[in-house]
Amino acid sequence: MDTNKPPKLLIVEDEPELAMGLRDNFEFEGFTVITAGDGEEGLRKAFAEQPDLILLDIMLPKMSGLDLCKALRARGYTTPIVMLTARCQEKDVVAGLETGADDYVTKPFRLLELVARVRAHLRRSAAQPVDLTEYEFGGLRVDFKNYQAIRSGAPLALSPREFEILRFFILHRGDVVTREQLLEQVWEISSQVMTRTVDNHIAKLRQKIEDEPAEPRWIVTVHRSGYRFLG
User: Counting C-beta atoms within 10 Å of the first and last residue's C-beta, which end of the chain has fewer, N or C?
Assistant: First the structure.
């Protein structure tokens, strides 16, 4: 994102009044706003306009928000996506995150909170490091230079391999990371080697950094593909 220009926001929403209200308020907050009224139009504008962030309704004509998000991520689109949904069931939230969304907001929502969350994602996106020395998420602070980790004020014992797995995930935050990528980039061995090593290491890492390892919040499994880091 060019910090000298106002952030560009794409709102994909089929309710005209809501779309207009969001556009007016975000323009008041200094954003450049583009709107789309259905999923297919949203897909076209996402590539044509190159927004800095997408606000995406789940229930859309022609192409659902979930399908649109999945299509964008499948084509390597890394722009932050925040889902807007009237449905708050856990399965819908999980479905949105697993298709590649960075966050979700349920309707009705507080406008100021939505603006704050959008700005937070824009800051995080702009600050994505090329080389990583420190990172903090979910009460965990990781010092990659000194191989130290502190969680909720207490030291956390991570192995050197676990530090490198975390580093790779963070550098590819929001993207689907395959087991083959981890084998080649972290283990530095051929992806042709068939091994459960990656899954075993991920399971051990989850035990250390997740509040509920069986229902992970930070390192989620993408069915038949690999993993995605959401920190």
Answer: N
Return the ∠ at Cα 102 (arms to 6 and 183), rounded to 5°.
120
**Cβ neighbours of residue 112 under 8 Å, at least 6 residues apart?**
none
* 25-53 pLDDT per residue, tens: 999 989 999 999 999 999 999 988 889 99
CB of 138 within 8 A of CB of 217? yes
Going by C-alpha positions, the residue among 97, 123, 118 that lies closest to residue 9 is 118
Token code pair at residue 1: 């994102």
pLDDT (tens digit, 9 = 90+) per residue, 180-201? 888 888 876 656 555 678 898 9
The model's pTM: 0.55
Q: How many residues does the structure list for the chain?
A: 231
